[in-house]
Each structure stands twice: as structure tokens, then as C-alpha cells.
Amino acid sequence: MKMLHTMLRVGDLQRSIQFYTEILGMELLRQTDRPEQKYTLAFVAYNGGNANGEAEIELTYNYGADNYELGTAYGHVALGVDNVAETCDRIKAAGGNVTREAGPVKGGSTIIAFVEDPDNYKIELIEMAGREI
After folding, report:
1. Is beta strand 97-104 parallel, antiparallel or unpaired with respect to 122-127?
2. In this predicted structure, what is the pLDDT of residue 132?
């Protein structure tokens, strides 16, 4: 088995595409509009996504739904980065929302931070220097 994608419901597809591509540096791989079923999908990823062995994020916009309750079950999506502090600075400069600045994880030494996308989904940034996956 292989992880292919994670789906997130979004309230404004273009705003979400902009966040994931312009602020987090992913690429828009494909977009499909299904007017009869009243939804649009957009897939974003790093390094070409599934075609190159990478997982993707599926952004799903359901016509007429501009926000969602996240509930208490959702945790976060994690992204590995070279330098968390520099990534946070770049995200803030691009207009992104850093909700937890770079620093060690509680009880450990791994450097992490958290950002939120436009629909308030949490994204953890994990510093990969010296860390094995």
C-alpha cells in the first residue's frame, strides 16, 4: 500500500490554491470541476506528487459551502523543511499565519512550528536537519 493523498474541504478554492502554491511552495497538479455533482477538486503537492512517489493534498470545494467545522478529531498535516525558523519568516512575509513559532517540541529537541491555512487547518513544520524519516 501507499499513501496517495489527504483530502481537505475548503471554503474558497482559489484562496486555498494560492496558500498551498504561493505560500507553501507546492504546485497545482490538476483541477477538476464537476458541476453536475456540485464540487471542484484541486490536487497540490511537491515534486510532481504521486507521479514521483510523493503524497498529494486534495482540496475539495463543495458549491455553496464557504466554511466547515473542523471538530476535535483533526490534528494536522506535517511538512518536513530544512530550516523551520526561515520557513516561518518566509510564510509570514507572504501573508501566511504562523500560530506557533519555531522551537523545540515539548519534551524533545526536534524543532517544529505550526501554521494555519485559510480554512484554519493546522500544518506542522518539522526541521529535517539531522533527522531520519
Report:
1. unpaired
2. 65
Torsions phi, psi for 93 (to 5 deg):
-65, -30
**pLDDT at residue number 73:** 82
Tell me which residue range forms the domain holding 27: 5-62
Structurally, the chain folds into a number of domains equal to: 2
- d(C-alpha 22, C-alpha 19), whole Å: 6
- Is residue 72 a part of any domain in this protein? no
Helix runs in 3-130, H state only: 13-18, 84-93
Active site positions, annotated = 124
What's the CA dihedral at 83, 2, 10, 19 to 10 degrees? 30
Q: Which residue(s) pair with 81 in the sheet?
A: 127
Kindly state whether residues 22 and 51 are assigned to the same domain. yes
Q: List the chain residues with pLDDT less than 70.
A: 130-133
Q: What is the CATH number of the domain that holds 32?
A: 3.10.180.10
